[in-house]
Each structure stands twice: as C-alpha cells, then as structure tokens.
Backbone:
C-alpha cells in the first residue's frame, strides 16, 4: 500500500521533472530557431548584394531603381539614439539607485520602488505618443528648430524606458555590497559622500555595468517609440537634432508592404540579424558582469 | 477538472469566432481613403443590416499584401498594382479585379507664413528630391527646406515619386499619416508636405496654405480644390482611387461596390473632398 503510494509520487515527480526540463529546452530551441531563420534569410540577401556594399555604403533606399542597401545610416541612427538615451539615463539611474539603496527612508523607498517599476509597464506606444505631442514640441521650442522629431526626442523617451531596468539592477548591486565595506570606510573617518562614491559604488561597479548594458539592450531594441518620435529620415544624421531612422523602425515600416522573397524582404532579415547580434553581444557583456558580481560577493 | 473544459470552450470560441462569416467585408489599405471608406460604410449599414463592413488603414501596400494573404476582401489602394505585385497574384493563382470608386487630388501644403502661392512641377521636383535645399532663392524665408513626407508603404509617396520622376531626398521626414504631416506644417514655417486634398478640406485650414500647382513652366496654376478642372483631368497630381478584390468574391462584395455608385455614395464622396470616378475598368 505504502510502496505503491511512494511509487506513484516518484512517477509524478519524474514526470514533472521532465516537463520542466522540456520547457527549458523549448526556450533554447526558440532562440536557436529565430537566429537560424534570420541567418538563413540573410544568406539569400548576401547572395544578391555584396556584404561590402551592405556594411560600407551610405544610403538605405530599397525603393529606388537601383536599390541601395546600406545598413550604415541605420546603425548610426540606432547607435546615436541609444547613446543619447544612456547619457541621460545612466547618471539618473545610478544616482536614483544610490538614493534608494543607501539614503532613502523606508517609507519613501516603499513608494518610490513600485513607482519606478510601474514606469516599465507603460506601453511603448503611449510613450511614443508623448514624444509627438509633448517632448517633440518642447525640444523644438528649446532649441529654436522647426520640428522636434529627431534623435534627441527618441533619446529622451528611451531614457525613460530604460530607467526602470537600470535602477532596479543597480540597486540590487549596491545592496549586495557587504556592510563591512561601509562600516570600515566610516570607521576610518570618511564621510557619507566619500563612502558612497569612493567605496560602495566602485564595489558595485560590475553590477552597475551590467545594469547599463541591459538598459542599453532595451533601448536598442525598442521600436514603436522611435518609429513615432524620430522622424524616420533615412539620411546619415549629423547630430542629435537630425531626424534618424533606426533599424527597428525600418523593419516595422517596411515589413508591411514588402513583397515576399524579394531582395528587399531578405534585406530586412539581414538588418534584423545585425540588430540581433548587437543586442546579443550587449546582453552577454551585461550577463558577464552580473555573474562576476555574484562571484565576488557570494 | 472544471478549468480545462472551460478553457477549451473559450479557446474554441476564440478560434471560431472570427472565421467563416460570409456576411462580413474586410477592407484594408490606403490611409488616404480610410476616412471616406468609413463614411461610406456607415451610410451603407442602415440599408444592409446583415452585412458588416470593417475598415482599417495602414497604407496601400499593406492593403494589397493583405488581399494577397487573404486577410482582406477589398484592398483600398491609391496607386495601381506594380508589376511585382501583379506577378505575385498570378503566382498565387488569384484573379483580381479593380474598381475605381473615386478620384483624389493631392494637395501640397506649406505654412501660412511662407510667401509662396504657386509652384511649378519642376521646382517641386527639385525641392522634394533635395536639390533645392533652401527657401531663400524662391521666397521670403532664409531657412532650409523641411520635407514632411509619408513612409514608403504609402501610395501617395509612391505616386508623387512616380509622377515627378524623382527619388525623395533622404532628409525627408517620414511621418505616420496625413494628420501628422498637417500638424507638423502648422508649426514649421519652413515645412512642405503632401496630403490627400480631402484631408485639408475636412481638417482646419488654420496655419496652413495649399499651393496651386503649375504643370511645367508655362502651364496655368490649378488648385487641388478646383472641381471643374479636376473633372476634366487637368490637375497634375490627381489620381484614381482603386479598390482591388478577388474575382471570386465579386458577388459577396458587390452590394458595397454598387452602393458606392449610387447618388448617396457619390454625394458622400463629393462632400468628403474627393471627386467621383468617371469610369470603371
């Protein structure tokens, strides 16, 4: 009686063990499948357009008669918007995380933390809308230019979207710094500011770098917001006040109308593959630093 | 085990809920035509209670792709099919037919403060292709030209490119729709953009000026609102608005197409700022 009961339990346990194992592998298979599909379709593209033109040209004009496929303006645009968003979000994020982890009274923290996490829940299309009606006109007025649909607008919006990621992971990293570091610093006579910025933040640096990388990954992959707020001009931008067209926006705009199995269709897979590789590398760097942090402070 | 059965039921309902309804007509495509199509559908509904017409925009290219993929019954298009698209319909064994239900004129708009009232097509080509980068040589304004265009999935975008025989300047901004272009021009004295004439008549004209267009250097300047000249086909940027459909669906959708030809339908077309079609192909 008891034996059969145990056996039944063991059977159920094994069943669930395998079930969970399968779900794990399904995720990996999905990632592999997506990567394979991107590469497979990109190969068809590079059969027709030489990689040299793709990586060195200066125009993305698939609709023109000769069909110019160069990823350069798109990569520069994507990079510019992401860089701008990090310039805004990184200092804000780190300072906010330091405040949350070390300075804020418990009651403030209890309100602030969920509020920051709520920021991540705002749909990107709503943020893009704010970019059109609020941030864009604001930028136009501030800089005395005619129109605010430019890289700076995208950067401001993406900074808002990347902040929750950066703050949450930074705060975890700062909290993981052993208390003894702080106590030692204070005992040696350093004041709070010195302790924070000469001891705690450097000790948490790997985690902070991980946070920035993951925030950057988020900014690079964001589509709707930049599509709505950056003007989508395909020329190579010369600064933050120029309109830009990111890789993601290009795919979103052109996917709807592109005829299947044409060079243009494969080209969109090729730029998607490039974006995938960029974000993968950035996420890997982020993961590397996140793991290093764990090893030091375990 | 109450949960799985409820779940299954919901799933079945979700899957079957939106398929196989013979009495619905799905129309997708041109953003230029979407407002007009919605008005036509609203007027159509009271007399044809059993038929549900659903309409969405997204651009002519998207409508045609949807027709090809079977997710639309009628593709609104402000341009005719290009050779690639024709080929693909042929490859998929789809016989399609078109119906011209209205005509549209494209209005070029600038800010009210710009001292220009007419433009020749030659100058327009220079401006939109990015050759002419500053307003200073042709007007009172010493500022670079700011082009507000549509995205490449727009039939209007393709039509102007084809009609002027140019490639658009890479500095042209690509806006999401006619309304966004008008909003941008309102606040930008150096902007120039193009929208369907119906959009300007319906929307407010405040802060915006519609240019008269001269074909060539010695033509006469014509406004996109000139009913008579457009009826004679004299405005340079007028075009037929197509509705493409699969031939096998003709019976199913004909009641809507017929409605568009009635006096009521034509009246709506006129009052929305479009022009009635004079022929069927």
Residues:
């Amino acid at each position: 009686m008891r034996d059969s009961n145990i056996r039944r339990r063991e059977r159920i346990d094994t069943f669930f063990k395998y079930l969970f194992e399968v779900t794990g592998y399904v995720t990996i298979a999905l990632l592999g499948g997506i990567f394979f599909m991107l590469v497979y379709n990109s190969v068809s593209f590079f059969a027709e357009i030489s990689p040299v033109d793709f990586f060195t040209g200066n125009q993305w004009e698939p609709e023109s008669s000769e069909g110019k496929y160069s990823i350069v303006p798109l990569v520069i645009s994507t990079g510019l918007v992401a860089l701008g968003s990090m310039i805004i979000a990184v200092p804000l994020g780190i300072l906010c995380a330091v405040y949350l982890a070390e300075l804020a009274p418990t009651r403030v923290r209890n309100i602030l933390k969920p509020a920051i996490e709520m920021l991540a829940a705002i749909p990107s299309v709503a943020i893009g809308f704010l970019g059109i009606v609020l941030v864009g006109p604001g930028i136009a007025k501030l800089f005395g230019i005619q129109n605010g649909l430019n890289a700076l607008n995208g950067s401001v919006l993406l900074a808002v979207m990347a902040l929750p990621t950066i703050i949450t992971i930074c705060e975890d990293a700062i909290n993981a710094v052993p208390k003894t570091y702080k106590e030692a610093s204070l005992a040696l006579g350093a004041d709070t500011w010195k302790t924070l910025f000469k001891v705690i933040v450097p000790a948490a640096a790997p985690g902070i770098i991980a946070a920035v990388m993951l925030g950057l990954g988020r900014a690079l992959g964001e589509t709707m917001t930049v599509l709505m707020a950056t003007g989508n001009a395909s020329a190579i931008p010369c600064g933050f006040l120029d309109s830009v067209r990111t890789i993601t926006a290009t795919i979103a705009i052109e996917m709807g109308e592109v005829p299947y199995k044409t060079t243009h269709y494969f080209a969109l897979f090729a730029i998607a593959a490039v974006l995938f590789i960029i974000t993968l590398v950035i996420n890997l760097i982020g993961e590397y630093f996140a793991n290093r942090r764990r090893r030091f402070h375990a | 085990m109450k949960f799985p059965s409820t779940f299954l039921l919901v799933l079945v309902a979700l899957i079957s809920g939106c398929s196989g309804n013979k009495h619905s007509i799905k129309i997708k495509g041109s953003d230029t035509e979407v407002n007009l199509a919605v008005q036509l559908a609203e007027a159509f509904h009271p007399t044809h209670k059993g038929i549900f017409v659903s309409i969405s925009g997204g651009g002519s290219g998207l409508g045609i792709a949807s027709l090809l993929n079977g997710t639309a019954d009628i593709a609104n298009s402000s341009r005719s099919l290009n050779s690639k698209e024709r080929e693909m319909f042929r490859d998929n064994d789809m016989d399609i037919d078109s119906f011209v239900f209205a005509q549209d004129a494209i209005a070029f708009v600038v800010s009210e403060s710009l001292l220009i009232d007419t433009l020749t097509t030659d100058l327009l080509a220079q401006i939109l292709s990015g050759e002419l980068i500053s307003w200073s040589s042709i007007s009172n304004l010493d500022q670079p030209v700011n082009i507000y265009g549509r995205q490449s999935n727009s039939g209007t975008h393709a039509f102007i490119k084809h009609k002027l025989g140019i490639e658009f300047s890479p500095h042209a901004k690509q806006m999401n729709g006619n309304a966004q272009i008008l909003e941008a021009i309102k606040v930008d004295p150096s902007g120039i953009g193009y929208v369907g004439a119906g959009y300007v008549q319906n929307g407010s004209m405040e802060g915006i000026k519609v240019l008269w267009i001269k074909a060539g250097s010695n033509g006469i300047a014509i406004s996109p609102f000139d009913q008579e000249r457009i009826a004679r086909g004299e405005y340079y940027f007028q075009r037929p608005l197509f509705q493409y459909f699969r031939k096998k669906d003709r019976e199913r959708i004909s009641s809507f197409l017929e409605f568009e030809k009635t006096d009521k339908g034509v009246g709506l077309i006129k009052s929305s700022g479009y022009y009635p079609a004079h022929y069927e192909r």
Remarks:
- Chain B is about 40% helix and 25% strand.
- Residues 2-17 of chain B form the longest helix (16 residues).
- Chain B touches chain A through 32 residues (CB under 8 Å).
- The radius of gyration of chain B is 21 Å.
